Amino acid sequence: MSSYSASTATRRGSVVPPLVGIERPLVQPLPEECDVLISGTGLVESMLASALAWQGSRVIHIDPNPSYGDAYSIFNIEDLKSWVQHVNTSRDSIYSSAMLYIPQPLESRRYFIDLTPKILFAKSDVLPILIKSRVNRYLEFKPLSSFHTFENDSFDRVPGTREDIFTDQSLSLMTKRNLMRFMKFVLNYDDSQTDAREKNTPIWLPYANKPVVSFIRDKFKLEHQQITELVFSIGLATSPDISTINALARMKRYLVSLGVFGPFPSLYSTYGSAGELVQAFSRSAAVAGATYKLNTSVVSYKESTKNDDNTSEALVTLSDGSKIKVKEHTILSPNSLMKLAVSLDPSVSLDDQSLEINKRDVKPTIPTTTSGIGNSLLQHQQQQIPKFPSTPTSKSTTSTSSSSSAGRSELTRIVAIVAKDCKEWFSENEQAAIVVFPPKTLPSENRFAVQAIVMGSGTGQCPRGQAIWYLSSTDPITSRARVDLEEALKKLESSILRESTKDFEFSDIAEGDVSVRPDGIPVLSSIKLGQSLQNFVPKERLQYLLKLCYSQRLTTPPNEYVAAVEKAWGTPMDLTKPSNRIGSNKNLTGQNEEQEDSGENSKVTVAPCPLAEISYDGVVDQTLQIYEKIVGSDDDFFDLDFEDDDELPPQTHQDRGVTGGSDASGSTAGALVGSTITATSTGPGIPSGSASSAATIAAVAAAANSSAIVDDDDDDDVDMDDDDGHVPDFGDDMEL
């Protein structure tokens, strides 16, 4: 196990860290003293480590796991199997009830399964930080413009631009006018928020805390289908009860993001989403002087008395025997806290709600050989794989679980790898899409929207001819959420089979069903065509290569775990509140809000759990809460001024098909995007040894570049430095 410190490098990033797999520096022990100790390499923790390191703090960043990512990890197939087994046999994770289906062996290193998939809006507050910190140089982004809504047993692409609305033949002229008027209103709705007591009271103010559906229907006369697309596909809301001001902020996020880099509102990073940002921020922190070590956890914490300068410090013991003097603060990720609690008190258990949910939903069974479910897993790990629930829960069970889960926030996911490229859902030169199932659109009468991110092979997450579907539901009742996800999965399956079929066979065609165009080509009537598509029976079955289901806690770790650590350490924990903001200045209510002080002077803070939001919104706010507590203000948060803009040369991404496995430092598959490391790399490219001279690193990088595999197709790549601040113009009036 090795550690790395870039303290010998010039501050402000004049030296690129050593390249793992090409250069193997000598192992050196961790420093004996630091300002901030962070356990867990989640996105918030990694962004925080980078910000603090560039601000000048001495940071030690550890992780109990053998790889980077924590709750934002990206797994290959073998790592995923180990993770599922760990989740189901331990009590030290925010994840629960994991189930895995693999009918046949897969080449592990060719897949990258994202535990927390996310997309990046072009006007997200994360984007300026990526650019200012130069973290974007370790990443590759591609556009995502396809947003689809499922309704009336069909998938409709959302008309997000003026041109889309004009050319949509399904909309009446009046609906087009009202829709354009509403979109223009959304772009400027918050300009007059301070005029609430004047005569020009904003029209949304009386509806601010009422459901947005009534506001749009009353004030803009839009129909149900357009309201659904606006709220759940453009706004990406999950609840039908979302307030007007909350929904307006979400819809504006989409509209202002259009045209910033091109005719698309959002982007995604290749080879995985948040996990890639974790590795990029970790590399940035190492350049700034942070020290990293994996497979290392916090064992004990003892705070000393006040020093002469009226400050205190803590002595922290790590699992490798190191004793670190922490001058300022200790940060624990939720998973790190739960692992620590179990190690301190093996009798600690999850709250009653979690136990009931696990007992009800997870019934481990050994799959039969005739079904083929999990056979490859049984041969590989000899473990029992739970079956997926196939029928809705009874009313009595639902009632019980509803009461038990009151106040509990949980996200349920299904991840499926299918043997279809799903190109029918993607825009030209794109490899990703969003599909939303609004409330009450599935046979299960889903109470919350089901959101799906579809990733094709061009994202780097799976081989050619395949796709990964990430489905999620925020229904707090896990059993009900899984039924909704299974129904959504069936709709996706039937849709892609129908849309990818080249030759349809029509029966019962009457003479009146066919008309002849002036050029002599016969045309089937739209009514008959629609009936045929609804009654379509595919000749083939969709092949599922992998299917994964799990639940994720969204709230703070259970009280029993927090209490166990507080008792053992003799110090209170500061629990970071979940963020509810869209953008950097406004919360989901669209109003300015100052974060409340927890009132604790604790030097130990527990970072928040990942948000249910499928975009990165809220992550910066979560990080700022902790940063401000440590530093005192957020004025210098990533306030960087690099002297030489060419210090860190642009990077090229490596061939992920040949990376994977674990190296001596515990690194696993999912190497850093943008690294010049090629097939010789065995890990994520996070530093694992002392810094070398700039000349040596330049020579190594040049050698690596000579054999690096570079993307030859740049048609859909995005230039992250070309933000012209464009805002879509929906005009004053439509020309009808």
TrEMBL record:
Compositional bias (Polar residues): 577-592
GO molecular function: GDP-dissociation inhibitor activity
Bias kind Low complexity: ranges: 390-405, 661-670
Region feature (Disordered): 379-405, 573-603, 638-670, 705-736
One Pfam assignment: GDI
One GO cellular component term noted in the UniProt record for this chain: cytosol
Gene Ontology biological-process entries: small GTPase-mediated signal transduction; vesicle-mediated transport
Acidic residues composition bias: residue spans: 638-648, 710-736
InterPro entries named among the record's database cross-references: FAD/NAD-bd_sf, GDP_dissociation_inhibitor, Mrs6
PANTHER family: CHM, RAB ESCORT PROTEIN 1 (PTHR11787:SF4), RAB GDP-DISSOCIATION INHIBITOR (PTHR11787)
Family: Belongs to the Rab GDI family.
Name used for this protein in its record: Rab proteins geranylgeranyltransferase component A
Protein's organism: Magnusiomyces paraingens
Lineage summary: Eukaryota, Fungi, Dikarya, Ascomycota, Saccharomycotina
